[in-house]
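Protein modeling request. Please complete all fields; requests missing the sequence field cannot be processed.
Requester role: graduate student
Desired output: 3D structure, token encoding
Chains: 1
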Amino acid sequence: MVNSSSSSNAATVTIVCCVLVAFCEGFDLQAAGVAAAGIAPEFKPTPEQFGRFFSASTFGLFLGALGGGRLADTLGRRRTLVASIVLFGLFSMLTAQAWSIASLTGARLLTGVGLGGAFPTLMAWVNEHSAPTRRRANVALVYSGMPFGGALVSLMSMLTESAHWRLIFIAGGIAPLVLVPVLLWALHEALPEAGATGAARGGAHAPKPKTGSFIAIFGDGRAPATLLLWVSCFLGLLTVYLMLSWLPTMLRDAGFSKIEAGCAQIAFNAGGALSALLLGELLERSLRKPSIAATLIAAPFLVFLLSRSSHEFALAVAAAFGLGGALLAAQGYFYASAASLYPTSIRGIGSGATVAAGRLGSIVGPVLGGVLTAAGHRSTQLLSEIVPLVVLGSVTAFAFAWQTSRTRDAA
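Delivered output (411 residues):
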């Protein structure tokens, strides 16, 4: 009984630490967007330079997710996670010391590499150190920390002068570095290194895939589910990042103030965080399938509703809250599924590849918004124009849910 209680307490400490890391990631992921108002008058970047600045972190995330996932399998989760956190903390601090738009862009690229390496490692770690009945819920719980971090940085930007943009990156760098000694203690003392627990999918006697093998994530009938998961994540994050990039502009163009646009963005993040928490709990209950279906059906409907509510502030905030809930809860489901889909020896690379596929969508989303506006489309038209893509994303997500359900039932 004592051992069971001690193990439960250790697992709780680990989950709390992982939530805090995800919170720091969410803060840093949106830091560039909210700091842009202060960066523009100081460095006076051209549109092309600003574009490279915004895409640098996202490209780094893509590289970090692939590399970090593989390193988590081969070198260990704890070592990879701590190194990634140190990297994004240090380079976030360096961003605050930037002396030119080029140095700013380089610092964001390296910050992104650290951020990208940390998240798939978090997913694998939480999955492997949670009770079987809490794995999906705990992964979704950790993911919910990211939109909460995004909401905080949006609030911080509303309460500080644009000229003080460096403070955002300083705060985004100090927090993860303060967490490092806590993680070194908690993850070392509470639980064994990743890979020491958990049997491969299919049972303890199933053949174990080669550690960190990218090809192995398509083996044992996982190829259809893997490809559907990648497409779902790509389209989901395309929509999320188009929203994060263009929602404030869309609302300002519709006549809302900076404070009102900021409130809508906070609502988007808050809705996502709360819905990810709720869906995580439902994934472990009998309402799992209806809750997934409701989330995927709601997403395109709410995009359309938000596109029609740009003249009513209360309706726009409510629609943003609901849309954030649908889109980010769906991402929580995808990440929880990715962590459960792959055996221990390839869970890091499998989760990393899933995150990387989503990051490609996060690159394409803001670019797509820029292409459409450059072609003469008003920013207020963007949401209605991407409804078909959101519908396609829901269709592929339904197909993924059906595929994994069928595989689970056959096992």
